[in-house]
Protein 1
Amino acid sequence: MKYVDEFRSPRLVEKIAAKITALNPGKNINIMEVCGTHTHNFFRFGLNKLLPKNIRLISGPGCPVCVSPQAYIDAAIELAKNKNIIIATFGDMLRIPGSASSLEKEKAKSGNVVVVYSPLDAVRLAAANPDKKIVFLAVGFETTAPAIALSVLAAKNGKLKNISFFSALKLIPAAIAYLLLDKRLKIDGFLCPGHVSAIIGTKDYAFIPKKYQIACCVTGFEPVDILEGVYMILEQIVRHKPYVANQYLRIVTKAGNTKAKKIMKRVFKISDSNWRGFGIIADSGLELRKEFASLNTAQVFPLRLKSKSKFARLCRCADILKGLISPTSCLLFARRCRPDSPIGPCMVSSEGACNAYYRFRN
């Protein structure tokens, strides 16, 4: 790696400060990290206290649970009320508040909600419960999509008639493109997500420097990874030569995981998708292809995917997801809204920005 020896030294922060000075010591540099793990580790390891104060790391829509729309949550809750249906879900979906309930509450009432650790667990659950309809909540970004695609194929090949997949899968590059249309955001660089990039590669971010002349860097998750990613972004800004840098060379390639992408393409097609706090973003989601219609929850069950419910009064999750404000600017933060009593999805999920700020900021 080009910088590896230099960045293992204790003078890393000094080097970052020198880059800032070369740029403009009084200029604020806004870098958005589009990954919940980056947000958490930035505060968890105290990097916010090490970096110069004029470097601002802004949390973006890097939490898949946080951007799942209210209508999706409400539909999942309604399905959970059906005694013939078992909802299979990842654990961080349980506590997201719906309009009138949550999956956690429905689980307590009926036991019809089961936490799984892999989408293949849902397939096994269907095989073991032929008298029940299993609905897997397919939530996530490109990182989880290949495993979900494999599970769809496993269900189809196993001729299981009692399982379906309720997709709320999202695509990160489309969300970044949407954010760049918002003139209120003054983004100087993007820390692109390592996990997502391990699947899609780096080339899908080429539009960021090419069209918008904004620096970006695919970055790992160790403290030194994040600091090195910040440095590589600053170097682009100083030289006025933005490009897609790849700090995470040990994991991420330009083309990504071609086998995983092939499986995703086999099962899913790109579609418009509703993001909580954003609305509909064109070509930003994945839905099952027509040949898998019998495994598509939206085709199997009559679902109402429109919700009148909005964020709770005073909740600023929408603005936080867009990077317009920090969690501490929300009047509910650390007062009424805490990890033990969350009001908005950004506090619910372990990847949410509000959760990270609350746990590690002080």
Protein 2
Amino acid sequence: MKRFNKSFTQQEPIPQRGVHRAVQVLQSGRLHRYNTEPNEQGETALFEAEYAQYQEARYCLAVTSGGQALQIALRAAGVCSGDRVLANAYTLAPVPGAIYAVGAAPVLVEIGDDWLTDMDDLREKARTTGARYLLLSHMRGHLADMESICALCRELGIVLIEDCAHTMGAQWRGEKSGNFGAVACFSTQTYKHLNSGEGGIITTNDAELAARAIVLSGSYMLYERHGAAPPVDAFEAIRLDTPNCSARLDNLRAAILRVQLLNLDRQIERWNLRYQIVENRLRNSSGIRIVERSLDESYVGSSIQFHVEGFPVDRIPDFIGNCQKRGVELKWFGADKPVAFTSRYDSWRYLGALPELPKTLKALSTTCDMRIPLTFSEEDCGTVADIIAEEAACQAQSASSA
């Protein structure tokens, strides 16, 4: 019986050039983004300029986390206390947490079997609640039909804010994820596509929104030291009326991000090769159903999701446990209680009264999720997929003979 013995949370080392530059920053003692010599651009400002170029966005701001990026983007986009914000119900806790933190009220929208936003429910809830903001989470790297999303937002006057924590480098019909809405948020937490431990990025083409975000991040009056900021006059109307939320990225983390960004597209190729090995082996496996992705989507396969079917839902914990015993770590979004990073919308009780979302509950009841670290070889990916397939087939056979 095959077993797997590698960690699902082990990341590749920071490239040596990044380590060297980080040591230089440490030796300088100037870790704060604004602690620079006259006419010097610090590592954070340089990273902002380089990421803006990569993303093909006019403006970029680096902050302390993806969650802070969401909060600052919401405020900069105009969300105020008491406002209603549409959000797909399949996401991770920092998304509703950001809406709650700015004093707004999430309006959770159903998802379909493909984990994408239910367009009919989105339209209905936008009309009935009057919500004028949509925080769209591209959860676990799945991109919705962005033309349809944008058309609906234009029709109903909705401001689109993209959560691209899992889609850095992904595209929809050749356009990069994050370039569809008024503002986009990215994460550089350890398990994302760039790794600084914690960190976040905001991009936008809106000069006033960018200026607000920079002041909100804690620029004081040093906004001219940013690497991808709007002109100084964009700050004049807002700088004294915008609070300081102190969420600046530091030069140490920016230094290691800059080096990783140079190789991001190559890393995406490596992720997708591993993803395709796993997906292809699971596609025709008994007890497992793969949801085919749109040909319009260029994804980043740093994780994979699939439905387990052919045996009762109450046997899914046994399936997960048996995979775990053989060294394969799966997450299940159908569990009644949160586990580690995985939680379902009905566990966010701080939001108050929660809606009934039967489509979402049905979809998540059979949804399993697995990270695909780049520390796995192609052979590793085949081994992992074989173990999953064997355990699913075992449960399906047991159920059929019961």
